[in-house]
Structure formats: C-alpha cells, structure tokens
C-alpha cells in the first residue's frame, strides 16, 4: 500500500503556488481574505464565466506540524495561505494559476486540452545557440519586473492585519529566490525571539515534491516572459565530476583571477546582485527580506570543508540511492535511515543509507562544494547553478518513481495472473484495462524489463520477486484483452512449444537479438537498452 500510495501521489500531484498575486496585494483583498482575481479572457473572477474555475473556500490539511515546531499561530506560513486568504480560485479541469489563466503542466492551447511533452536536457547536449538562449533567458528574467507577482516585506501582523499592505516589486528571477528564502526562513516570534528549527521545504518528506513544483513554476514564468512555450531548464549531470565543469565563462561563470570568491568579469552572471542572504540581520530587526540587492554572487568551488564533503557524488552513490525501496522512513526528518528522500537530500550516507550528521552528501554535497552563495540554504537560489543542480535531482526523483511503480505493477500483475489461471474469466472481469493511476508508458517499460530478466540478463534491473514468462504472458493479455483467456492446457502447450524452439535453436548458429514487436508492444532484449530506457542504471558517460 505504501508503494501504491507513493506511485499515485507522484502522478496526481496537485499544484498550488506560494506567490502573492499583484491583484491581491490591496488592503481590500487582505482584510476580506479573498484572492480571486479576474481572468482577462472574460473579466470574471477565476474565469468562472468560461468554466475555468470558481472562487471557493480553501481546504486545509488537518495533518499536525512536526514536533520540532511547538507553536501555533506564530508564523504566517502555518496553514498556508489562510493567514492572508481563506478564499482563492479553485481551478477546474486542466486550468491552474491564481486566476485560472494558465494550463496545468503538460497541457497547452486556448482551452488547455492539448497534451504537451517537454524534455529537460543535459546542458552539455545543448548546441551553442541553445545554450546562449538559455543564458539570455535567465538574464532577461533577472532584469524584468514580474507583471503578476509582488513580495511581502512584512508579516501579516506588521501589516496591521492587512489594513496597511507592505509589498515590493520583484524581478522574475528573484521572485523565486525570494520564495526559496521565504519557505526556509526562521520564525519571527516577536521582540528579539527567533525560532530556527523550522523549514517548510527541506529536511522532511516534502523536500522533493516541493522543489519539483518550484522548478515547474519557474519554468512556466520564463515561458510566459519569453513567449517560448518549449523552454525547459537543462540539468547538470554531476555524477563522478572531479570539479565544477560548468563553472566556465561559456556556461555558468568561471573564477575571477583577481578574487577567487567572485565570478569572472567575462561571465553572464558577474554583474548579478544577490538578495535574501542576510538572515541574521533580518532576524535582529524582526523583518523579512525585502529584495534589496546585497552584493555580487559568490562562488569558490572546491575550496570547501572537505572533512564534511570529501567529494562530489559518484555513479555508485546514485545507484545505491535508487536501490532504496522506501521513499521515507522512521522519523521522516534528517535522521531518517534507509530513506530515499533523506539519502538523496544528503543527510544519510549513499554507501549505507544510515543518517550521518557529520557528512553532507548527494544533493547537499553540491551546495557545500560551491562554497559561496549557493551554500546558504535561504539564499542558494541566487546562483543559477541551483536550477541545473535541482533539475538533475528531479530527474533522479522521476527515475525512483518509475522504479516504485514497476514494483507495484509487478505484484499487481502477478496476483492478476494467479487469478487468471484459477478462473479464466476473472482476469478480464476485474482487470479489463490498466488502473487509472498507471501511465501506459509503464506498461511498455515493464514488458521490456520482464523480457530482459527472463532472457537471462542482469536481475538487478527489477528489485522485486523473481519474474518468469508467465508474468510476461499476463502483461500481453493485460494490454490485449481480445487475446484468449489463460488456462492450464494453454500453459502446457506453451511449454511444449518452447521446448521445440530450444531444440531448433541448438541446430542454428546464434544470432544477435534485435528489437521486435509482440501484440503491438515494442520489446527490447538487451540489458543496456532496457537500462537506458527505464533509467534504473545510468551509465557514467555524459551522453
């Protein structure tokens, strides 16, 4: 049930943004606690006249906060966003956004009905024009004020419960820098009191899904800014890296020869100003980051605490992380053992899965290694390497989710096949089509893996109970309901047929196996091809 729940969660994750819409920054909106702006297409709140959404009361989670936070009603982020708004746009169908004016991720078109697949690519696979366009888009975002969003520079209490709004403009890039600061900042308790043991986006199960949504929203804002609906954030594959190979002027900025803590003057990013890095100053004033520039971007890769982070993550580290079978475990924080999330985040050893407070590995290792702005949690998104780094982390999350779904489906179909053998019609009666939470792609992937395993290749590809040709047959029937029902007699016939085939093969020379098609489903035999497709074992090369 845990695996099934995780599989469903990762595929039906519903989005909700933590931005403050400019249209809802007035005293009227704050005092009425309603944020339901009009959609420009029909000028009705939430595009209600066009069936895009409706202004409704928000639904809050009833889950308790973690024991590390003993307060109630002291932080604006509690029961988000109810401190500021208790009525917002609830969008229908494939619409999303603060006024239901956008399409959900993966859809586009005037009515958000057309499916769209966007692919994030390795930054080293981009052509020179593609790479330069990416850098230019980031620069444009850094120098363009967001038309849709503002940032609060005071708490709701400091705004006199909304009667005196306190908001600033922010550029499109820094909007997300501020969001990352805001979600991980300390709690201001009043006077000189601060509570530091709090973070709404790190050191807990929400770390990975929060950052996934964060990147998707960031991509979406750059798409809107540039008019390039095909824009995606590239990733940096840092496995087995001996140094920061993207820290060059051609890519994310080389080292300044006059000051190793600064970027080269020839870099796109040497003139960038950072924000939201002076946490102790904000705390002493009981204030929030207001987006004021605080100096140049700092980075000195490799000159970090090597006792804490001896090296960058290896391919073996990644493979071990993906071999873990629990998304979360134990205390569900940075002390969790054998937790995929905690190991990938970097609080547990990628060699053993045991939490180790003295080491920073995996995701955390990259932040520590950069030895500058990116090494501070609240301000780390100032460095554009943050985007490339987290895009690769998200790639690993996607790989893990596929593995988990494959494990669930293997059990599901094994049981289905057992029922089919006992009662020939039961299989089709109960399972006429794939479950709604199973993407069709997973069905094809599973057939690839099953055939690979049953052909005598590496069994580590699928970390579950052994599979056989019978499971493969169940898969084909699962995809082809018109096929005849299984029976014990059919099973005997198949065995005799396989025996005759084996005798014929002995008389012939062995030929190289090639991809073929069974029941309209592409099948691959080679182990390497299966691994490349499914992503369970990623080769160390950068291609």
UniProtKB/TrEMBL annotation:
The keyword Translocase does not apply. Its EC number is 1.14.18.1. The keyword Membrane applies. Pfam families: Tyrosinase (PF00264). Residues 490-515 have a biased composition (Basic residues). It catalyses: 2 5,6-dihydroxyindole-2-carboxylate + O2 = 2 indole-5,6-quinone-2-carboxylate + 2 H2O; L-tyrosine + O2 = L-dopaquinone + H2O; 2 L-dopa + O2 = 2 L-dopaquinone + 2 H2O. It comes from the Eukaryota. It is an enzyme of class 1 (oxidoreductase). InterPro entries: Di-copper_centre_dom_sf, Tyrosinase/Hemocyanin, Tyrosinase_Cu-bd. SUPFAM superfamilies: Di-copper centre-containing domain (SSF48056). GO terms for molecular function: identical protein binding; metal ion binding; tyrosinase activity. It is a single-pass type I membrane protein. Residues 1-18 form the signal peptide. Residues 484-518 are annotated as: Disordered. Forms an OPN3-dependent complex with DCT in response to blue light in melanocytes. This is Tyrosinase. It comes from Lynx pardinus (Iberian lynx).
């Amino acid at each position: 049930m845990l695996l099934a729940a995780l599989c469903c969660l990762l595929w039906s994750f519903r989005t909700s943004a933590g931005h403050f819409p400019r249209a809802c920054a007035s005293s009227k909106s704050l005092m009425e606690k309603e944020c339901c702006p009009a959609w420009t297409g029909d000028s009705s709140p939430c595009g209600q006249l066009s069936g895009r959404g409706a202004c409704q009361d928000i639904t809050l989670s009833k889950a308790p906060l973690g024991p590390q936070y003993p307060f109630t009603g002291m932080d604006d982020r509690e029961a988000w966003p109810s401190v500021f708004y208790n009525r917002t746009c609830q969008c229908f169908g494939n619409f999303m956004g603060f006024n239901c004016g956008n399409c959900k991720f993966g859809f586009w078109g005037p009515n958000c009905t057309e499916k769209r697949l966007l692919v994030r690519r390795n930054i080293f696979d981009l052509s020179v024009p593609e790479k330069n366009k990416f850098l230019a888009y980031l620069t444009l975002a850094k120098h363009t004020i967001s038309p849709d969003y503002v940032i609060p520079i005071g708490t709701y209490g400091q705004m006199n419960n909304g009667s005196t709004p306190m908001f600033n403009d922010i550029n499109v890039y820094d909007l997300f820098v501020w969001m990352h600061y805001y979600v991980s900042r300390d709690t201001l308790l009043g006077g000189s009191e601060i509570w530091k043991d709090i973070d709404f986006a790190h050191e807990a199960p929400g770390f990975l899904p929060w950052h996934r949504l964060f990147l998707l929203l960031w991509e979406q804002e750059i798409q809107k800014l540039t008019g390039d609906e095909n824009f995606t954030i590239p990733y940096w594959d840092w496995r087995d890296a001996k140094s920061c190979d993207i820290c060059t002027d051609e890519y994310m900025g080389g080292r300044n020869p006059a000051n190793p803590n600064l970027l080269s003057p020839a870099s796109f990013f040497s003139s960038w100003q950072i924000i939201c890095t002076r946490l102790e100053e904000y705390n002493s004033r009981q204030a929030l980051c207001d987006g004021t520039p605080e100096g140049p971007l700092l980075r000195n890769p490799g000159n970090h605490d090597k006792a804490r982070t001896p090296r960058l993550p290896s391919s073996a580290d990644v493979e071990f992380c993906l071999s873990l079978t629990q998304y979360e475990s134990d205390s569900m924080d940075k002390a969790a053992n054998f937790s995929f999330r905690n190991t990938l985040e970097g609080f547990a050893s990628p060699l053993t899965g045991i939490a180790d407070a003295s080491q920073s590995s995996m995701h955390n290792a990259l932040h520590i290694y950069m030895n500058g702005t990116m090494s501070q949690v609240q301000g780390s998104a100032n460095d554009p390497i943050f985007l490339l780094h987290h895009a690769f982390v998200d790639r690993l999350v996607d790989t893990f989710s596929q593995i988990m779904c494959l494990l669930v489906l293997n059990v599901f179909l094994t049981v289905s096949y057992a029922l089919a053998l006992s009662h020939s019609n039961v299989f089709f009666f109960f399972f006429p089509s794939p479950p709604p939470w199973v993407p069709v792609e997973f069905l094809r992937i599973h057939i690839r893996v099953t055939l690979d395993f049953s052909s005598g290749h590496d069994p580590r590809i699928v970390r579950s109970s052994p599979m056989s040709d019978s499971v493969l047959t169940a898969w084909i029937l699962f995809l082809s309901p018109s096929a005849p029902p299984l029976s014990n007699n059919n099973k005997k016939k198949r065995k005799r047929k396989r025996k005759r085939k084996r005798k014929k093969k002995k008389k012939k020379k062995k030929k190289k196996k090639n991809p073929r098609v069974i029941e309209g489903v592409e099948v691959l035999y080679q182990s390497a091809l299966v691994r490349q497709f499914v992503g369970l074992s990623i080769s160390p090369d950068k291609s």
